[in-house]
Write a structure and sequence with these properties.
There is one protein chain. The chain is built from five helices and eight strands, in the order H-E-E-E-E-E-E-H-E-H-H-E-H. By secondary structure, the chain is α+β, with helices and mostly antiparallel strands. It has a four-stranded antiparallel β-sheet.
Length: 179
């Protein structure tokens, strides 16, 4: 699933957030389908700056979802079902947490809906850019060398599951070749 259904999700994930310093993943093999590869993945990612993230993917959900949710200092962004929502905190969360005496209270917020007018050119745009790079030396939108990052994420998820431990990134290529 990680290399068949999710490579674009992994590409976008690392493009937006960068590469983590470590991952702990749980991949289930043949959980929903009679296959020998992962069809359900949950991964916890840690970054050197203290940021954490969760990546979840499954082929066993119906109707399923494709959602990006980012919670941060100033609020939360949710992109799902062609909708872009920004819930903005009136007070930064760290300041609110330090100054608010209530344990489970939340800062005042306001919701902002940002229209998504199109999906852009998607694959056709990438292919047109590739042709322009060959014919006119246009800079590539998605250089091939960028693909190694999503592959490294997928491999680190699988290795973490197989060895039942957290994996430090970047992966050691010599170690990975020996298993």
């Amino acid at each position: 699933m990680l290399l068949n259904q999710c490579p674009h999700n992994l590409d976008l994930f690392q493009w937006i957030f960068g590469m983590p310093s470590s991952v702990r993943a749980f991949c289930h093999f043949g959980r929903y389908h009679d296959i020998e590869v992962e069809d359900d993945v949950t991964a916890y990612l840690e970054y050197s700056d203290g940021m954490t993230a969760i990546f979840a993917a499954s082929t066993g959900e119906a109707p399923g979802t494709n959602r990006l949710e980012v919670a941060a200092e100033q609020g939360k962004v949710v992109i799902e079902n062609d909708q872009f929502f920004f819930t903005r905190n009136e007070v930064p969360m760290s300041e609110f947490s330090r100054t608010e005496p209530g344990r489970f209270s939340v800062p005042a917020i306001w919701d902002i809906r940002i229209p998504i007018e199109s999906h852009g050119p998607q694959h056709n745009g990438i292919l047109a850019n590739f042709v322009a790079a060959i014919l006119d030396q246009a800079p590539l939108i998605a250089p091939a060398r960028e693909g190694i990052f999503s592959l490294e994420l997928a491999n680190s998820f699988l290795l973490s599951s197989l060895e039942n431990r957290s994996i430090q990134l970047p992966l050691d290529g010599a170690y990975s070749n020996s298993i």
